[in-house]
Design brief:
336 residues; alpha+beta; Muramoyl-pentapeptide Carboxypeptidase, domain 1; Muramoyl-pentapeptide Carboxypeptidase, domain 2; 3 domains; two-stranded antiparallel ribbon; 42% helix
Length: 336
């Protein structure tokens, strides 16, 4: 009897991926041992409840278990990639990497009616999408781009050109909330001023849809428990002095949005949307560094390098949030 080594590796990869799924969903045993709730932990209650005294410890366990599942899943993904057909040849990957080095800051494209330059700002999102931590100028990054291109039906060149970037943007945009339906008054709650980046913000501008707020608090607790984010905390909560990940803006009325548009008539279609997801109360602008909500490339480039933003890119989806790629601060609660 003979064995195909490629098939054996592929079977092992699938087994690893399956194990990652089990780790993510198996509930903990009553004595606290076992895996975290994983995907089920993202489900929101109808109304937020006061956190128990053990919240910080519980979320720390959730983070450690989730990271263990991520490690197993990553190993499985890499094993599958190793046996994919038509793998990118080293010379081809290096050639693509050279082109990516130029396009990273030099690609010309348009979004929201405004000319754009390069895709360096979006590297963390791109890495997450194609499943790599390799530097954007490397051959490994180019090989990951090629594999993703192949999966979505594009020419597997490994070059992050305009067609590939547009396909990525389409993928990100498709994951966002659909519609801008107003929530009922009883679906909104007023968040304490201390949880906003600007604590002087008026009461009617501190409203958040209830399930979204509950998911945000779970996500925030996990970020506080994760030492890699280096957030200042007190008793498992974000410290009053800490600005990162505090809410900048949430629910907005149509009238308020219209006033903002009049104040910034040149914002373009990429900002201050006529039908904003903020109308739903399920969109949160979170502080991730720099000027809170300024779309200048230099500001967005700074924001996408912060620990807080990069943590959101890696972890926010687990809590039901998806990004608006163009605004590093803008996150929408997309869980059903």
């Amino acid at each position: 009897m003979t064995f195909d080594k490629r098939k054996i590796v592929l079977i092992a990869a699938v087994s690893l991926a399956t194990l990652a799924s089990v780790v993510a969903i198996v509930p903990p045993r009553p004595d606290g041992a076992g895996a975290s709730r994983g995907l089920f932990a993202a489900r929101s209650p109808e109304t937020p409840k006061p956190a128990p005294a053990s919240l910080a410890s519980s979320n720390a366990n959730d983070v450690r278990s989730a990271e263990a599942a991520d490690t197993v899943a990553t190993a499985g993904t890499k094993a599958v990639e190793a046996v994919e057909t038509n793998a990118v040849a080293p010379a081809v990957a290096e050639s693509a990497a050279q082109q990516n080095r130029a396009l990273k800051d030099g690609l010309s494209w348009t979004f929201g009616g405004k000319p754009q330059r390069g895709w360096a700002i979006y590297v963390p999102l791109v890495q997450r999408l194609v499943g790599t931590e390799d530097d954007a100028a490397s051959a490994g990054f180019a090989a990951s781009i090629a594999r993703w291109q192949k999966r979505v039906g594009l020419t597997a060149s490994g070059v992050l050109d305009e067609a590939t970037l547009m396909r990525m943007i389409s993928t990100w945009q498709a994951r966002r909330r659909k519609g801008s339906t107003y929530p009922r008054p009883d679906e909104l709650l007023t968040v304490p001023a201390t949880e906003f980046w600007d604590s002087s913000r008026a009461d009617d501008l501190r409203q958040v849809e209830r399930q979204t707020y509950a998911a945000y608090k779970r996500m925030l607790a996990a970020a506080v428990a994760d030492s890699s984010v280096q957030l200042a905390s007190r008793n498992g909560e974000l410290a009053a002095s800490e600005k990162y990940l505090k809410i900048i803006s949430a629910f907005r009325s149509r009238e308020y949005q219209d006033r903002l548009r009049k104040l910034e008539p040149n914002a373009g279609r990429g900002a201050l949307a006529v039908n904003s997801p903020h109308f739903t109360g399920r969109a949160l602008d979170l502080y991730v560094g720099g000027e809170p909500t300024i779309t200048k490339d230099s500001n967005r480039a700074l924001q996408t390098q912060t620990r807080a933003y990069r943590w959101l890119v890696r972890k926010a989806e687990r809590f039901g949030f998806c990004p608006y790629f163009y605004e590093p601060w803008h996150w929408e609660y997309c869980a059903q």
